[in-house]
Design goal:
Oligomer: single chain
CATH class of the domain at 4-74 and 106-181 and 272-358: Alpha Beta
Distance between the termini: 28 Å
Low-confidence stretches: none
Bound molecules: flavin-adenine dinucleotide
Structural class: alpha+beta
Helix content: 25-40%
Length: 402
């Protein structure tokens, strides 16, 4: 068995597997280490969450050869409707107005995760499932990684280690990277409904006194619900009868899609912001949720994570072409520098949206309503907001120089 790699990727989630695929033809010798089994990943209840993918994310997935295999499982977002319950302010963003095919796409996380895992397997990339990182030490020439594979211990070395092991990242902890945590005291309740009226490919984001509610268009008349509530309220809704839940949901959302029917189990995700204070340490870098776990209110988590992947892959491919060290300090510092601004912007934006739209203090409510109404009448500001929502505010790395 091989013990030295150019690159060890910890975590076969969305970020880890996308990075492995982005580098599959780079000539780098890669292994992906994943704590769960293939089956556990497929059966995880978390796979029921829907992801709103920005157009920029879909562009990257196309470059990676991922999108064609899942496009028919996705639903285009042609309009975004943002409103505030009990207040007049609202705004609409439309693909037609912006002259684009779609503002983004909605897909069940499980469909994308399963497809990525299949592609990584087909690419022949080495993977260790049911293998957990338990220790690591970054030296001058290599990083040493201790793994636990069921009852067995295993040691590997690599030029570079990428921690893509999610919000509770062990890699982040082992590297002693401090983190900022903001507890929002909120839980996202996730489910799927079927509506009486067609959604016409509209994603609804509705801000209510109890927290934001999103309905994202899915196949037919289905819509994925992401409903943020305070912990106790969410717990009560998780335990309530179907009729009670639907009555509360209709009261928050209204009847713009007619009567709603529940068509999937409910899942609960406690929400907090976790941000690593640094992205790099020695010969290791953390990406995706390991570096930034966001509130899902603005649907930015993976959309931000895939830009980490695209940037890092682009730099590693170029480094490989120069026959240079993939774990070189300059490369990693440069990566962190290039990603910092995007992280600051999206984390700041998401945090402000949570704060402003969870606040019913009258002056704040009045300001956000004026903001939404103004936005609806300012085409330039709307274009800017739309380009941000689409993940196209900044050009993406090309990833085509392999
Ligand atoms: C309710 C909800 C709705 C969301 N909606 C959106 C949306 O609309 N749009 C969007 O862009 N994002 C959304 N997100 C965010 C998105 O789901 C995450 O950003 C994304 O899944 C993070 O991917 P990741 O690969 O970084 O981490 P993860 O998906 O957490 O993957 C980490 C992997 O690492 C493995 N692992 C953990 N520890 C170890 C270890 N010690 N050793 C080895 N392996 C390990 C785990 O088993 C896991 O497979 C949403 C999130 C939630 C909760």
């Amino acid at each position: 068995m091989q013990h030295h790699y150019d690159l060890i990727i910890v975590g076969a989630g969305l970020a880890g597997n996308c990075l492995a695929l982005a580098l599959k033809d780079s000539g780098l010798n890669i292994v992906v280490v994943e704590a769960a089994s293939h089956r556990q990943l497929h059966e995880s209840p978390a796979g029921d969450r829907a992801l709103a993918l920005a157009a920029g994310t879909v562009q990257v997935l196309q470059m990676l050869g991922v999108w064609d295999g899942v496009a028919d499982k996705s639903t285009a977002i042609k309009n975004i409707h943002i409103s505030d319950r009990g207040h007049f302010g609202k705004t609409r963003l439309s693909a037609t107005e912006q002259g684009v095919e779609a503002l983004g796409y909605v897909i069940a996380a499980r469909d994308l995760e399963d497809h990525l895992a299949d592609l990584v397997e087909q690419a022949g990339i080495s993977r260790f499932y049911e293998t957990r990182v338990v220790g690591l030490m970054s030296g001058n020439d290599a990083v040493n990684v201790s793994l636990k594979q069921q009852q067995q211990s295993l040691n590997l070395t690599a030029q570079l280690l990428v921690g893509a092991d999610g919000g509770q990242s062990t890699v982040r902890k082992l590297l002693d990277i401090p983190q900022e945590v903001i507890e929002y005291g909120q839980t996202a309740l996730v489910t799927t409904v079927e509506s009486m009226l067609p959604h016409q490919n509209t994603a609804y984001e509705r801000f209510t006194e109890q927290g934001p509610l999103a309905l994202l268009p899915m196949a037919g008349k289905r819509a994925a619900v992401v409903w943020t509530r305070e912990h106790e309220q969410a717990e009560a809704l998780m335990a309530s009868g179907e009729a009670e839940l639907l009555a509360e949901l209709q009261a928050c959302f209204g009847y713009r899609l007619g009567a709603l029917k529940l068509v999937a189990p409910r899942r609960a995700f406690p929400l907090n912001l976790i941000r690593a204070e640094r992205m790099i340490s020695g010969r290791a870098v953390i990406i995706g949720n390991a570096a930034h776990q966001l509130h899902p209110v603005a649907g930015q988590g993976f959309n931000l994570g895939i830009r980490d992947v695209a940037q890092l892959a682009d730099m590693l491919i170029k480094q490989r072409q120069l026959h240079s060290d993939p774990g070189a300090e300059e490369l990693l510092s440069d990566y962190a520098r290039q990603r910092r601004q995007d992280h600051d912007k999206i984390i700041g934006f998401t945090n402000h949206v949570v704060r402003i739209f969870s606040n019913d203090w009258l002056p704040v409510a009045a300001l956000r309503n004026t903001g939404l109404t103004l936005l609806d009448h300012l085409p330039f500001a709307k274009t800017l907001l739309t380009r941000h929502a689409m993940g196209l505010a900044k050009p993406l790395p090309k990833l085509d120089k392999q």
